[in-house]
Amino acid sequence: MRLKNSLSVIAATAMITACAMTAADPAVAAGRTAPACVAREVVKQDKTAWTTNNCGRNMHIKLVIDNGPDRQCWTTSPGETLKWTWKVGSYGRIAVC
Predict the structure, then answer these.
(1) Count of CB atoms within 10 A of residue 12's CB?
(2) Whole-angstrom distance between the N-terminal and C-terminal Cα of the chain?
(3) Are strands 59-66 and 81-85 parallel, antiparallel or unpaired?
(4) Which H or E run includes 21?
(5) Is the distance from CB of 70 to CB of 84 less than 8 angstroms?
(6) Which tens digits make up the pLDDT trace of 60-78?
(7) Cβ count within 10 A of residue 5
(8) 43 backbone dihedrals φ, ψ, rounded to 5°
(9) 62, β-bridge pairs
(10) Which of 4, 8, 53, 65 lies 20 to 30 A from 46 at CA?
(11) Which PROSITE patterns does this UniProt record tie to the protein (predicted)?
(12) How far is the C-alpha of 67 from the C-alpha of 92, rounded, in Å?
């Protein structure tokens, strides 16, 4: 009986740990802010942003939205421009992913 209770405690601890890990701040999950070689232009009123990869190498970036869902990660080639739009929340930052 004692082994069964110990296993229940271990399982409960693992579940709590897993839930805490998945509930991490989305901004942290996105990674650090993209370097300055990823140019940004943002029109907050229109909820639109453009990024241009001026880094000279492929970059993996995503749009982080404050109080809204982040956009998926995209791989951009040197010189490539992406247009990002959103409906809920406000512009947070461009992050590496």
Answers:
(1) 10
(2) 47
(3) unpaired
(4) helix 2-22
(5) no
(6) 999 999 999 999 999 999 9
(7) 9
(8) -115, 95
(9) 95
(10) 53
(11) PROKAR_LIPOPROTEIN (PS51257)
(12) 9
Strands (E), the chain: 38-43, 48-53, 59-66, 74-76, 81-85, 90-96
| Pairing outcome for strands 81-85 and 90-96 | unpaired
Euclidean distance between CA atoms 61 and 52, whole angstroms: 11
Q: What is the pLDDT of residue 89?
A: 97
pLDDT value at 97 more than 60: yes
pLDDT, tens digit, for every residue of 19-52?
Answer: 333 334 444 467 999 999 999 999 999 999 999 9
Other CB atoms within 10 A of residue 34 CB: 25
> pLDDT category, 2, cuts 50, 70, 90?
low
CA atoms within 13 A on the CB side of 62: 17
H or E, element range at 26: helix 26-30
Give CATH for domain 38-96: 2.60.40.20
- pTM score, two decimals? 0.69
